[in-house]
Amino acid sequence: MKFYKYQGTGNDFVMIDNRLGEWDDLSIENIQKLCDRRFGIGADGLIKINSAKGVDFEVDYYNSDGSKSFCGNGARCSVAFAHFLDMIEDKTTFTAIDGIHEAEIKNGIVKLKMGNVHNINTDGNDFVLNTGSPHYVKYVEMLNNYNVYKIGNEIRNSETYKKEGINVNFVEKLSDKELFVRTYERGVEDETYSCGTGVTAAALTFMKNNNQKFVEIKVMGGQLKVYAEKDGEGFKNIWLEGPAVQVFKGDINLDKA
Ligand SMILES: N[C@H](CCC[C@H](N)C(=O)O)C(=O)O
After folding, report:
1. Does residue 85 share a domain with residue 166?
2. Integer Cα distance of 133 and 97 in angstroms
3. Do 125 and 234 share a domain, yes or no?
4. 3-state secondary structure 167-212
5. Do residues 140 and 109 share a domain?
6. Is 107 annotated to bind ligand?
7. Model confidence over 20-50: pLDDT tens digits?
8. How close is the Cα of 128 to the center of ligand 1, in Å?
9. Predicted pLDDT of residue 211
10. Alpha-helical runs (H) found in the chain
11. Per-residue b/e over 238-247, b at no fewer than 16 CB within 10 Å?
12. pLDDT, tens digit, for every residue of 64-84?
């Protein structure tokens, strides 16, 4: 199997050009093996780029445990991959598990339009919302020293959330214009260096209390930007912007993975 390895602010993916459907039957066990950081290629997730009617392509995302979801950073990397394959120029429309997305790419920076968010719920002093995947958002102090794995794992597996699972984001306000976000990701079952839908969720919980339309987000793997407009209790015209990089390419014999 020919693969490409991409990363978006440290959230990393095995990327496969599946436009001919050669890997439609890729098993969950094989996806887990390919994502394994000791016995496989190693990644937070695997993405198949499929052909799709009426749009440029389909982004078919799997977490490293084989579960499916929408992935913001993965979608951004998919746009960079499609551009690399000369499937698109600087603008695209594609489909994913949560619906149709527009995106733009310029000099390796991908700007992805996220789905609208109709409401932000609360759980105690914390927030719960869906930005294409489900997110829990908790504001904390001194995030650098915070036990993201322990607390994130506890919330993700709590009575309320354990059935469907939820991504758990910890947020520290650095200034009126910048947040620091660390995320425990469902389906990876660990902290990742960046979570696109997660930083979007964090940004919206921040913007709901002020009139900003832009937030800079520091993540473990770099910097992301989120733009959004208030729309009643929710937000519309939400964009996630940041780098997407092809790290290497290769061939792997699935039988031996
Ligand atoms: N683990 C997430 C999907 C990937 C989200 C994250 N990698 C992103 O960039 O949005 C979930 O199961 O909902």
Report:
1. no
2. 10
3. yes
4. EEEEEEECCCCEEEEEEEECCCCEEECCCHHHHHHHHHHHHCCCCC
5. no
6. no
7. 999 999 999 999 999 999 999 999 999 999 9
8. 15
9. 83
10. 28-35, 72-84, 148-156, 196-207
11. bbbbbbbeee
12. 999 999 999 999 999 999 999
Which CATH number characterizes residue 145's domain? 3.10.310.10
Read off the pLDDT of residues 121-133 as tens digits, 9 standing for 90 and up. 999 999 999 999 9
- How many domains in the chain? 2
Check whether residue 194 and residue 142 sit in a common domain: yes
Confidence band, pLDDT 50/70/90 cuts, at residue 257: low
Residues 20 and 109 in one domain: yes
Gap between the Cα atoms of 42 and 34, Å rounded: 6
Give the structural domain span for 160: 121-241
Q: What is the ipTM of this complex?
A: 0.92
**Is 86 found in the same domain as 99?**
yes
Say which of 71, 77, 148, 188 is annotated catalytic: 71
Mean pLDDT of the chain: 97
Other C-beta atoms within 10 Å of 232: how many?
A: 8
Which residue out of 75, 195, 199, 203 is catalytically annotated? 195
Q: Mind listing the pLDDT tens digit for each residue in 150-199? A: 999 999 999 999 999 999 999 999 999 999 999 999 999 999 999 999 99
Joined tokens for residue 116 = 């609208």
Whether residues 102 and 146 fall in one domain: no
Q: Give the pairing type, strands 214-219 and 190-192.
A: unpaired
Same domain for 163 and 101, yes or no, is: no
- Block residue for tokens 């094989």: 30
∠244-170-99 over CA atoms, to 5°? 50
Pocket of ligand 1 (CB under 6 A): 11, 44, 63, 69, 71-74, 133, 167, 185-188, 195-197
